[in-house]
Amino acid sequence: MTIDLALEILGFMIGLLYLWWEYHANAKVWIASVIMPAISMWIYYSKGLYADFGINIYYLLIAVYGFIHWTRKPANQTATGRNDTDSDQHSVSVITHIPGLTAIILAAVSLALWGAIWWILVTFTDSTVPVADSFTTSLSIVGLWMLARKYIEQWFVWLLVDIVCSALYLYKGLDFYCVLYAIYTIISILGYRKWLRLMRTQSPIS
Questions:
Q1: Of 71, 73, 110, 141, whose CB neighbour count within 10 A is largest?
Q2: Which domain holds residue 54?
């Protein structure tokens, strides 16, 4: 077994843990968000997925921010009221809908990032998939920030990312990651429905 294959399998296993914790709105998701980038950076670079490689640096930083936001209880916010089987008892921030203006801004940011990353890949790298690589990278940057803020619409972003990534990794011969993101695609739909139920059981902000 090669090092690349071993890391791919390890990343697959940690990715499943990440998916489980995200599905249950559990703050432990940010632990996986620290470990996975360290593994994925090697894999993506070796496969010429340079944008995916670069975004993992951002993942490490946003994981710290996300953990703090999910576990820090603002003075004007009550506990979520969710039972421990649905989420981490220390995850005190509540799930909310994204404000309309914020959604518009993030859409514009996504387009700008897509164009910028696409240009960088075409100009400075030998990437063979600059369009798809830059597309998933730009959406992932926005989607991960939305996850850190606990906006339920982040699931829609990940659904689109997961569909494209699954096809991209199949093309690049990353079979385990292809299967992982195919699973992510299904869970994105189930996760949205799960978070809707969690929103109904959490206590309102006072």
A1: 141
A2: 3-74+97-201
